[in-house]
Design a protein that fits this description.
Strand content: 25-35%
CATH superfamily: Nucleotide cyclase, GGDEF domain
Structural class: alpha+beta
CATH architecture: 2-Layer Sandwich
Distance between the termini: 72 Å
Order of helices and strands: EHEEHEEEHHEHEEHEE
Radius of gyration: 21 Å
Number of domains: 1
């Protein structure tokens, strides 16, 4: 007796998501003390944030229309297209964003000014059902909300923008000194947020690091170490250990990421 069997696959292969290991630049900009605004002013602040980001991108030669953006009320999270020049974002884009904010704030009373925190990292960032998955979106969220970054902006009354970049971007891009990047304008901080721990580098565009009113968070007694010399003695400072189904949507982190800090040592 002959038996004919027909096999029916349990799932369609084209429905199965493929892991995306493409490295992308990720950034997020958040409005300082957004909750101080009433409802009409919140609406206006969100519109100003969107315009400021778009204008800075266009003036830098970047196509903001190709950014995968995820507005979240008081912040904009964006994943940039593959191949976006990192030095252009850290250089011209940051410069134009700071200039645009400074020009706007110069015509406003203190209560009506808009100041931003901007965090930038590079790494795997794949589209997911509820936003983006991968280590880079999580790292950007942790850098953005680090107390050290908030304090840096709060204590620099003349600044309109504080920028924090990951250690890998500092080592690979900032230290190359292209596009006007100057390592001496950055201060190293150690960020520990939830399951994340790593070094970041903070800059206040338009503010002389030696003119700040208070020492940077975590700076040794007597003032901060010279960042360029510190970088020469330190190796990149964190190692990724595990990522589990991460995603960002509407300010909510889905899944978990585990980093272990590995302090750099001379000669290692």
């Amino acid at each position: 007796m002959m038996v004919h069997m027909t096999l029916h696959p349990t799932g369609r292969t084209w429905d199965t998501p493929r892991p995306d290991d493409t490295r992308r630049l990720c950034l997020a900009a958040d409005i300082e003390q957004y909750s101080r605004f009433d409802t009409p002013d919140q609406w206006a602040a969100q519109a100003r944030l969107a315009r400021a980001m778009r204008a800075a991108a266009e003036r830098s030669g970047l196509d903001h229309g190709r950014w995968s953006t995820q507005p979240q009320g008081d912040l904009e999270f964006a994943v940039l297209p593959p191949g976006t020049p990192e030095q252009l974002v850290l250089g011209e884009f940051v410069t134009h964003l700071a200039a645009g904010l400074g020009g706007y704030n110069a015509t406003r009373r203190p209560a009506g000014r808009m100041r931003l925190r901007l965090a930038i990292d590079t790494g795997v960032a794949a589209t997911a059902a509820l936003g983006f998955s991968g280590p880079a979106p999580i790292a950007v969220a942790r850098y953005l909300n680090a107390p050290e970054v908030k304090q840096a902006l709060a204590t620099a009354g003349s600044a309109s923008l504080v920028v924090v970049v990951s250690d890998r971007l500092y080592q690979d891009v900032v230290r190359s000194r292209v596009h006007g990047l100057d390592p001496e304008q950055y201060h190293r901080i150690h960020v520990r947020q939830k399951e994340f721990a790593g070094y970041g580098w903070v800059r206040l565009p338009g503010v002389d690091p030696q003119d700040e009113r208070e020492p940077w968070p975590g700076a040794p007694e007597g003032g901060p170490r010279h960042p360029a010399r510190a970088a020469e003695r330190e190796q990149p400072s964190f190692v990724q250990h595990g990522v589990h189904g991460t995603g960002i949507q509407a300010g909510v982190i889905h899944g978990s990421i585990v980093y272990r800090a590995v302090p750099g040592e001379a000669g290692r």
